[in-house]
Amino acid sequence: MIRTANRDDWDKIYEVLEDAVDRQKNGNPLIAWTMDTIKKENILDDFPIDDFFIAFNGTEPVGIIAVTDEHRRVYPHIEKGQSLYVRWFVVKRKVKGSDVAQTLLNLAINRSLEEKLPLRLETNRFNKKLVEYYKSKGFVEDGRYFDEKWRAHQQLFLYNSKI
Known about the structure:
With about 160 residues, this protein is α+β, with helices and mostly antiparallel strands. The chain is about 30% helix and about 30% strand. The relative contact order is 0.15. The mean pLDDT is about 85.
């Protein structure tokens, strides 16, 4: 089941993010998050909690995705409402390889198609598996940059660019 997050869901979102930070501690240098960067105030300052969607396996949160219509830090030249952006797209390690990630990504893609807006996302450009995954789902490369906030080399992707 997937549902829109509400103000009481921060702990569920945090549980999924914490799993990603644990992966980094256990040898995945391609995740640039720390316990500090996933603090509530660092995330919810950028956009409201109801931009998040949470995937559940029973009552356990196993994945999240945030879809927003503004990303001023990376795309200051694009006006609010002219594009959609995937932010904080994470699935827990225990469900990797299941359909959770694809279902969450499809949610964002379908919203992009329904609203007739391009969909943008970013990922660590050295994460070759993820770069290839996004390409296989129809995303095309749309630039690169060094993210000072996260200290990471990012690859930008675009979906539905013909709109």
